[in-house]
């Protein structure tokens, strides 16, 4: 991807911040401190691509690279009033440095101020690579052309529920209603749907898969440097790695098969719709430090100490509590990371407190063109591209 950026003449100017190993949806780390939201610096820019989103929202750069393994493009975009396209699996290869990330959950693209810019950048970076195990279907034309094309009359669905059964703020539901109203203004049909099979077990299998990937990454680091690295990483990373070590290889394999089976059902049952609208974050951008890892880490460590005494499946209630604490802020983005579908975060709403709150539209596998065409129409109707972060400092 970087080779394609450079070949196109893009000029990289900085490395932006992220939480350690991209494991948090707020960009706060021991190494670099707190990355703040240009709309209100008392609040988070989201994560894990929070540094990228802060730079674009503040007008420092027009676009910034971002990656997404569980919402890390869409969450910061939703927090900072940006367009964040999570591409289809295989659209932008991760090779040559790696074959895949997190068992195929991770994709690369960018956060941008406009649908046009996101589409133009994707034209520069997409395409198969012989070293990649995945290749998305080729587009019918250019993504830039799709972003200026009338989408026609689309058949859309709306999914309002939390897969975890956790609370959803009134502001998030208002943002979703705003997106629905814009879509209706664009002439599209809207149908409310339920996805009952996307529930706590699905998200639990996702969480175990990520934990196993983190544990594996820590093992690779130990081999690379020839010593223990536990003292070099944050406590939260160590705890995630410990959890990944507790889960057996057989459990991970079985969990992946369940995730794939659910993905097949999801893709099949949503195929009649051009896109499915759903939230990205359950609450407006949180205050910086609101998910300080200290309290959560102590809880997780207690859970892990008890898990060492027995297998994970005997402690489902404990694991459920751990999951709720970790994923309280966002419940939906992991769905498309598992299924490989594209999904685009759209900045449809600003809260009464002056904070952005975006929603997402998830499309059919390989069909970024329809999403970009629809998103550009929404952008035009709403006029959101004219909004700019006011760079507010807390009182």
Q: Explain this structure to me?
A:
- By secondary structure, this protein is an alpha+beta fold.
- 41% of the residues lie in helices and 12% in strands.
- The protein is built from 13 helices and twelve strands.
- It has helices at residues 2-7, 50-57, 74-80, 115-125, 143-146, 170-185, 200-225, 235-246, 249-270, 293-307, 316-327, 334-339, 368-382; strands spanning 28-29, 33-34, 36-37, 40-44, 63-68, 83-86, 107-112, 155-158, 189-192, 275-279, 343-346, 359-363.
- The strands form three sheets. An eight-stranded mixed sheet has the order 5-7-6-11-12-10-8-9, with helices on both faces. A two-stranded antiparallel ribbon has the order 1-2. Strands 3-4 form a two-stranded antiparallel ribbon.
- β3 and β4 form a beta hairpin.
- α7 (200-225) packs across α8 and α10 runs antiparallel to α11 (316-327).
- The longest helix is centred in the middle third of the chain and has 26 residues, at 200-225.
- The N and C termini lie far apart (41 Å).
């Amino acid at each position: 991807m970087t080779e394609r950026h450079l070949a196109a003449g893009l000029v990289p100017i900085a490395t932006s911040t992220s939480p350690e190993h991209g494991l948090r949806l707020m960009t706060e780390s021991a190494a670099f401190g707190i990355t703040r939201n240009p709309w209100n610096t008392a609040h988070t820019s989201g994560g894990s691509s929070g540094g990228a989103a802060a730079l674009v929202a503040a007008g420092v750069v027009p676009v910034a690279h971002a990656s997404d393994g569980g919402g890390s493009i869409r969450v910061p975009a939703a927090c900072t009033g940006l367009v964040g396209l999570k591409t289809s699996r295989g659209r932008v290869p991760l090779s040559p440095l790696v074959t895949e990330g997190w068992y195929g959950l991770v994709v690369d693209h960018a956060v941008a101020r406009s649908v046009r810019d996101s589409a133009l950048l994707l034209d520069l970076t997409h395409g198969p690579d012989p070293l990649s195990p995945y290749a998305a279907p080729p587009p019918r034309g250019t993504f830039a052309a799709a972003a200026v094309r009338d989408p026609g009359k689309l058949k859309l669905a709306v999914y309002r529920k939390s897969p975890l059964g956790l609370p959803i703020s009134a502001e998030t539901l208002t943002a979703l209603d705003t997106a629905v109203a814009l879509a209706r203004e664009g002439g599209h049909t809207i149908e409310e749907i339920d996805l009952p099979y996307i529930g706590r077990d699905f998200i639990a299998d996702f969480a175990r898969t990520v934990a196993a990937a983190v544990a594996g990454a820590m093992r690779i680091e130990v081999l690379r440097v020839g010593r223990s690295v536990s003292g070099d990483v944050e406590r939260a990373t160590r705890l995630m790695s410990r959890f990944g070590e507790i889960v057996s290889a057989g459990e991970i394999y079985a969990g992946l098969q369940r995730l794939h089976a659910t993905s097949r059902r999801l893709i099949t049952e949503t195929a009649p719709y051009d896109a499915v609208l759903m939230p990205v974050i359950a609450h407006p951008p949180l205050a910086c430090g609101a998910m300080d890892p200290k309290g959560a880490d102590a809880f997780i460590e207690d859970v892990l100490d008890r898990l060492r005494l027995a297998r994970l499946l005997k402690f489902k209630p404990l694991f459920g509590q751990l999951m709720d604490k970790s994923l309280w802020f966002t419940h939906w983005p992991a769905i498309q990371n598992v299924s490989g579908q594209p999904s685009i975060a759209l900045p449809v709403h600003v809260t009464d407190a002056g904070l952005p709150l975006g929603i997402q539209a998830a499309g059919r596998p390989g069909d970024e063109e329809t999403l970009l065409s629809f998103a550009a129409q929404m952008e035009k109707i709403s006029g959101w591209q004219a909004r700019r972060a006011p760079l507010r400092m807390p009182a």
